Amino acid sequence: MRDILPDLLAVLGRPDARPVALCRVIATSGPAPREVGASMVVTHDDTVIGSVSGGCVESALVHTAQQVLEDGLAVVEQFGIEDPRDPAPGLTCGGQIDVAVERIEPTPERLGQLRRLADALAADEPIAVATTLNAHPDWYVATEASRPPWRRLDHDVADMLDTGRTGVIGLDDCEATDPAAPTEDRPRTFVQTFAPPARLILVGANDFVRALSSLGSTLGMRVTVVDARPVFATPERFPDADEVIVGWPDRYLADQIRDREVRSTTALCVMTHDTKFDVPTLRTALQAPTLGFIGALGSRRTADDRNRRLREEGVDEAQLARLRSPLGLDLGGHTPAEVAVAIAAQIIAERHGAQASPLHEGSGPIHRR
Q1: Spatial separation of the C-alpha atoms in residues 344 and 32, rounded to whole Å
Q2: Alpha-carbon distance 42 to 158, whole Å?
Q3: Superfamily classification of domain 199-352
Q4: 223 φ/ψ angles, rounded to the nearest 5 degrees
């Protein structure tokens, strides 16, 4: 819902606003085309914002949305494998998705919840939207400081917020442990969490950094460029970066680690080709277990020399094994843009535990969950 939220707020915030239908993927099975949480909005005049399947079932959902807008009763639609003998829409990828469709009224309460969500996303604060899956859904916006009123689900929602998981909890999960509990205290609920975006910290201020900064921003990462030279580290040279820091990279990184701004979703790419910056920064990074990805640009000869210097600085072999250098996948490119693609591809592959091999050479599902 992150990507459609600005449009949703704009539509509901008009003086003459009318209800809209919100469609969200709440569960998937097999090679589904979109992730859980993918969202689509249908307005009263059939304007469609967003997508839940890349085009496979959207037309059917528009029809469902019209019905939900008319009677106000939320439903959950299930779409499975496309059958050429069946006129009903299906998924060509062979998976299955469950889509919850509900009517969203332009009330002060709902607008307040959506604005609270938008504010949290803008501030990079963890937040979750919990929605009951019944005919008349209740909403609750949960943060680290607040919990939903459903007392038998509050710990589940808090756990999902802590771990960044999105999915369905509730009645079915609780029945076995406490069958006597009243169902109104444990409604089947879709919890959609919004964790802060992954970070990309780039050390250096050259053309390769600029290209990777732009690509990282396109991938939805929060990009920081750090360089000690003020003549090069300027916002004008890196327009796609969220912030450009003038300062010694190792000191900046140490401060970020101390302030717990570095997480498992943070990637650090050292791209200066200067040992007085590279070695202290990498030493600091490799000694921080919370940092998810650590890479350094350079040739194999440069990488070997850098590793020797890091060992002399007290970096042990287990720590050194975390360093990705030379950095990037071997795609054969040489230009800054091509190198940026190779680096971003490696970061994505490691984040998802993928082998980064050509799809046509493999077998099994493409969309892994």
Answers
A1: 24
A2: 30
A3: NAD(P)-binding Rossmann-like Domain (3.40.50.720)
A4: -100, 130
In the chain, what are the domain boundaries?
4-194, 199-352
> CB count, 10 Å around CB of 45?
6
Report how far residue 338's alpha carbon sits from residue 213's, in angstroms, rounded to the nearest whole number: 13
What is the DSSP code (8-state) at residue 91? B
How many angstroms separate the CA atoms of 155 and 283, rounded? 39
Give the closest residue to 80 by CA, choosing from 62, 72, 92: 92
pLDDT in tens, 245-293: 999 999 999 999 999 889 888 999 999 989 999 999 999 999 999 899 9
Q: What number of other Cβ atoms are within 10 A of residue 156's Cβ? A: 20
| DSSP-derived 3-state class of residue 295 | strand
**Residue 246: beta bridge partners?**
227
Distance CA 277, CA 354 (A): 31
Q: Note the pTM of the prediction, 2 decimals.
A: 0.68
Distance between CA atoms of 356 and 182, rounded to whole angstroms? 48
Q: Within a 13 Å sphere around the CA of 175, how many CA atoms are in the beta-carbon half?
A: 4
Residue 114 vs residues 10, 30, 107, 119, 133: alpha-carbon distances, Å: 11, 31, 11, 9, 18
Sign of CA dihedral 304, 305, 308, 310: negative
- Given a cut of 90, whether residue 29 has pLDDT beyond it is no
Among the listed residues 220, 226, 224, 214, the one whose alpha carbon sits nearest the alpha carbon of residue 195: 220
Distance CA 149, CA 46 (A): 34
Alpha carbons 55 and 22: distance in angstroms, whole number: 16
Model pLDDT for residues 171-218, shown as the tens digit of each residue: 554 443 444 444 455 678 999 999 888 899 999 999 999 999 999 999
Q: CA-to-CA distance for 12 and 23, rounded, in angstroms?
A: 15
Main-chain phi, psi angles of 148, to 5 degrees: -70, 160
